[in-house]
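User: quick one, fold this
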Amino acid sequence: MNAPASVDEQSFRKLLSRNVGLPLGVGVLSAVLFVAMISYLLSVIQWVEHTDRVINNANEAVKLSVDLETGMRGFLITGDEHFLDPYEVAKPQIMAQLKGLKELVGDNPQQIDRLKRLEALQSDWSNYAQSMIDMRRQSGDYRAAVQAGRGKRLSDEIRKEFEDFVAMEQQLRVARNEDVSKTTLVSIGLYLVFVLGLSGFLAYRGRRDLLDLSKSYSDNLELQIKTAQRLEQQAWLRNGQTELAEQVLGRLTLNMLGRNILQFCAQYLGTVVAAVYVREDHGGLKRVASYGFSREEEARDQLIHNDEGLVGQAARQDQLIRLDDVPEDYFLKVSSGLGQGTPRSVLVVPTSDDDRVNGVIELGFLRPLTERDVELFELIADNIGMSIEAARYRQRLQEVLAETQQLNEELQVQQEELKTANEELEEQSQILRESQTHLETQQAELEQTNEQLAEQALALAGQRDAMDLKNTELNQAQVQLEERALELQRSSKYKSEFLANMSHELRTPLNSSLILAKLLAENPQENLSAEQVKFAESIYSAGNDLLNLINDILDISKVEAGKLEVRPENTSVSRVVEGLRGMFEPLAGDKSLQFRVEVQPGTPAMIYTDSQRLEQVLKNLLSNAIKFTAKGQVSLTVSALPDAAIAFSVADSGIGIAAEELESIFEAFRQADGTTNRLYGGTGLGLAISRDLATLLGGSITVSSEPGQGSVFTLVMPEQFVENAEPPARVPVSAVVPVVAVVPKPAAPAAIVAPLHIPRFMDDREKGPFTGRCILVIEDEPNFAGILFDLTHELGYHCLVAHGADEGFSLATQFIPDAILLDMRLPDHSGLTVLQRLKALAPTRHIPVHVISVEDRVEAAMHMGAVGYAVKPTSREELKNVFARLEAKLTQKVKKVLLVEDDDLQRHSIARLIGDDDIEITAVGFAHEALELLRSNIYDCMIIDLKLPDMLGNDLLKRMSTEDICSFPPVIVYTGRNLTRDEEAELRKYSRSIIIKGARSPERLLDEVTLFLHKVESQLSHERQSMLKTARSRDRVFEGRKILLVDDDVRNIFALTSALEHKGAIVVIGRNGREAIERLNETDDIDLVLMDVMMPEMDGYEATVEIRKDPRWRKLPIIAVTAKAMKDDQDRCLQAGSNDYLAKPIDLDRLFSLIRVWLPKMERL
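Assistant:
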């Protein structure tokens, strides 16, 4: 479409010419006026300058006239010729000056006349002056001539003429200046008026023309925008038709066609919910596709009858229905992952083919409908209808084709069946003919066979009678075997119960004996003599021997009863061998025997078996080898065998075994020498147990020995344990050990198993004992250790260096250094372990320890008594600061302690308890006083009570952590309050040392103070050393904790109560399961339960189950204690609800370790 031109090109050119030409013309006029004005001003300035020059010359002439008169008067008065010098100089000049003035004012006749008069006057005066000079020279009466006044009259006339001359020139200058100003102002004013008028006119005309031009442009632009919008809408409609055509192309079913149409509407138009309905043959509309429906709505079929709803009306009227601003409950909610909403408008579009409605599309929008939406559907409705009709036609065609194919297949099947039936009939006819011939032949053979069968029937009748008799005998034998099996099963059960009961009866008294003997042997009160301690140790040793005998008997019984459990796991061969080396090397050394361990090349690194039972067998073999060897050597050789087996060979140079005894030594309670006066003791159970265990693990034991030459026992084990597998065949000793002799000859190179080797640093230990200060460096990195070693020497200290924890602790106990630098990551133990061992040992407890490590364990180290902590990497300056901090600790003469306690008596008692010559105690009763002191002082230790008059101790610690104090000292909380678990956890943020006031609290307080002040324990008084020893005999884990001991045996109760109370625990006793539950109900703060299993009324299993039923005690730690020690005891205890399991007799160290495990966060001083 061509729009008429809306801009007058002639008007635009005229406007452009005016807006360009007029400013140029005004500019040219302004330039001409400016040049004229400048020229005029320059001309006037020249005249002004001319006037000034005339005035100046006139003034010069006046000055010369004055010089003539002055020179004459001076000569007349004095008669001195020198006074005539000015006169003689000015006389010729004045006339020249007047002549010059006449030239300058040649254009002014009035001034010319005045100058002529001046020349005449000046000439008269010059004559008069000359006559006066001559008269004076001649000594005439010049005074009379002067007094006559002629000279004065001539001078006055000359001055008057000069004044008039100058006045006229000044008037001329003023007049010229006024003319210039007036002319300039008038010219500029007229020019400004002209320019302003012209500018106003141009602005008015320009604004009018620009408005007309702008309106014309706006009308044109609006017309272009409408045209572009119309073109864009047409392009959008065509694009929509194109995309829809792409969606409906292909052989689509009605469902696929509907989904494609709705997908197009969603993508192109932004519909959020839609459905496609297709007219059925009966006239109704059925939904074939939907978009944005929920799963429930999607699964429900929807059928709309004629005239039903808007969809039916749209189909009936064949008109598009549009709904705007529909109510909120019209649709189901449309939801997504980000939210949900309700559609705002609905569009119902009928589709038709050949003017027959064949479908309806219903669309929902979250936005208002636009005219182009309606226009698009009016354009594509017929296309969609044609596509629906084509899809319906294809569907009907496919249905007809499928029916045709089905009929064709059925006809082919029937044809094949008929053909097959004909062939079968022919075959059957042939078979019948052959069968008839064969039957005739068989009939003759059967007649002969019947005669033979009659004879055999008589023989079989006799055999049947014999078989009946044998079956009767077998049934009787089977019944007897079943009865025997029941008896054996009953016997095994009775044997197991007997073993369990015997184990309980033997272990129960043995348990109390061992516990009490160990307590006596430790002699914590030091009230027993050395001989009495030795007696107690002998009792403890004898009890352990008896326990080992009971365990051996039970092991044999378990194996025979099938109750021994195998727990295979991946085990390191080198770890097993290393453990045996560490155990038996000292024993061999005690008998001056050479003990050698070899792992031959090619031996597998890992073995999958029960490591505990494997070690038990090897320990038995090595124990026998050392026991029966008086001199020479004992060796353990590990090598690989074919068929994935490993051989452990134990060789000795002992007494040997006779050939006839080689088999009997593996029988229980049998020894090679079983006489009453035999040289070597023992029960004879070791080899029997070892053989049974080896067989249970899928292995075997062989022996080769000669009397007087020694023995070789070889344990062959499979690399992979397989349950119920056959043991490997016995391997000759020669196949395992190349050479068996009393003194071993050099063999093939073997890997000697050695302990963990930590290299030694070449330090100053050879120079000890030291006279000066000594620093111990425990650091595993050689380079950093060398840096510390050099820096220590540079600062003037001796230095000891250890690369391992054990070596460092050994050097500390041997040399007692002045300070220690400790790393956390050490190859054998953690640095915290070394710090704990140092602080637990009295001789090393006072040594300042500074930690330097990459691990950030500041809190733990400082609470354990470290004086400082530095995190690697550190600079040289930081290391020097570390040494400076240690030097300050070493040279500190007075230790400062801040005591915060409101009770005067308590303050005095604590001060007397911890006071010493080198300790300065500052005691305050209020928290705010303590804060003031901490802001200005540094303390080595702080003791606080929780209940203070002005503030709780918890709040004081919080303020210390947030306020600006000099340093946060190690804090010891010393209080009489019983803390809740939450209060204790809150306090542990600031202090690990929490002491509850009680009978043993002074000893604990003294122990903690000496730790933080680094006091040398040996320098304390004997009374305080005893207090510290008493304090350390009690364990922090047990202090103040209540442990419920449930046992029916008085001896066990007495022994365990003594051991636990010695550690600081409070023991509550229950004699059976029912009493245990009663004690738990009576006492709220039970921390742990030790539960015996075999008890009257209610045993430990049932009691544990009942305890776990109560929600209050579901997390209460329960450790089961039993003396039965059978295979399923531990499983039964754990299934009942126990946390752990301990067998009698109780090893106190293991018992205490278990309690520490199950009470890890309940430590209290």
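User: anything notable?
Assistant: The radius of gyration is 65 Å.
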